[in-house]
Design brief:
The protein is mainly beta. The protein is built from two helices and 28 strands.
């Protein structure tokens, strides 16, 4: 497997978003959405053949234009959602979001439209998020002026809605896997707002998280209350949501805007992507869940012999020549990830053996 990676694949159109096909349990699979104003757009499903090192591509025509965000259901393999825009009548920009089913065959793939997410009153939909374990059949969508929770168990219907502050500029949405799935985080301007989905009210505000716009956030999958953010100040910051006055750690890991931050299931590893063309692997063991585990004497002796990984930047991946807007971990192989740059270059890579074995042994 290691000898076939990194795997570099060129897409003919500009692209902005990649995400894992979360409902797939056996094959390393990623979804990519294209952005072309002149040509037809598509959702590409890439599947990695680990035996032969080939990357299969199934292209689903996307009739709603450019794709700005894409997400997949973790409980139903063939359900996805896209945020999109197109120009109507040569002058009017039409934005929206749609829930689709991956349908058809490999020879004739098609997106079956399930429903549009049309309750945002004409404002652009910035992101959608599918509910984590325990919240199957639920979806959230983020517009410029509202946050909406949807039921998608049997069709798609609006469950509840809340208005966002006026003159805010929402940029990212993430569902907290803790708190019984009742909380989402919204990045807006330089702030993070945590919303309770039971009441649809904001319960926590982190002000001035970054000195410039916040581009993304992610919740630690194993340690409750812990969160990572990134932004236009070239930094990635780590927070305890119970005490929001100062970050737990700040790492300046890019020379330009940081667009994406993603925790690994091994939560000491964090990936970031930036418009400096780099993907960076961070190591934050002092903030990870394993740092809480009690140590016995045998473990302590092993730890003295093993050379610990340095905290901060572990590796930089420079296989891109344009801004890297998106990066995602595989849900099948936790050591493998995909990154996507604006010029349509998709790169599949994996954490090196030295780092992997240092962590698991």
């Amino acid at each position: 497997m290691d000898n076939i990676l990194p795997k570099i694949h060129g897409i003919e159109h500009r692209c902005r978003v990649v995400c894992p096909l979360e409902g797939e349990q056996d094959v390393v699979s990623f979804l990519v959405g294209t952005q072309s104003m002149k040509s037809d757009n598509a959702v590409h499903l890439y599947e990695l053949d680990e035996e032969y090192g080939e990357l299969g591509d199934i292209s689903y025509p996307h009739p709603e234009g450019e794709i700005w965000h894409i997400a997949s259901s973790p409980s139903t393999r063939d359900l996805i959602s896209t945020c999109h825009s197109h120009v109507a009548d040569q002058v009017n920009l039409v934005s929206g979001a749609t829930v689709w089913r991956l349908a058809g065959s490999k020879e004739e793939p098609q997106l079956e439209r399930i429903s549009g997410l049309d309750a945002h009153e004409g404002s652009p939909v910035r992101a959608t998020e599918w509910g984590p374990e325990g919240c199957e059949g639920q979806l959230c969508s983020l517009g410029d002026s509202s946050l909406i929770r949807w039921d998608v168990e049997d069709g798609v219907r609006e469950h509840s809605k809340c208005d966002l502050p006026k003159r805010s500029a929402p940029s990212a949405l993430r569902w907290n896997p803790h708190s019984s799935g009742n909380q989402v985080g919204v990045a807006s301007d330089t702030h993070i707002r945590l919303h309770d989905l039971r009441t649809m009210k904001c319960v926590t505000v982190l002000d001035s998280v970054h000195s410039h716009n916040v581009r993304d956030l992610d919740f630690n999958p194993n340690r409750q209350y812990y969160m990572a953010t990134c932004g236009d100040d070239c930094t990635t910051k780590f927070w305890d949501c119970r005490s929001c006055t100062e970050p737990l750690m700040t790492i300046t890991n890019h020379s330009h805007w940081v667009w994406k931050v993603r925790y690994n299931l091994r939560d000491q590893l964090v990936l970031t992507a930036g418009s400096d063309g780099k993907v960076v692997l961070l190591n934050v063991p002092t903030l990870a869940s394993e740092s809480l585990a009690p140590d016995d004497e045998e473990d302590e002796e092993e730890r003295e012999v093993k050379d610990p990984l340095k905290e901060g930047v572990l590796e930089e991946y420079d296989k891109h020549e344009d801004s890297v807007y998106s990066v995602a971990w595989s849900t099948v192989d936790p050591w493998l990830f995909a990154s996507l740059s604006h010029d349509g270059r998709l790169v599949l890579n994996r954490v090196s053996k030295d780092i992997k074995f240092n962590i698991i042994l």
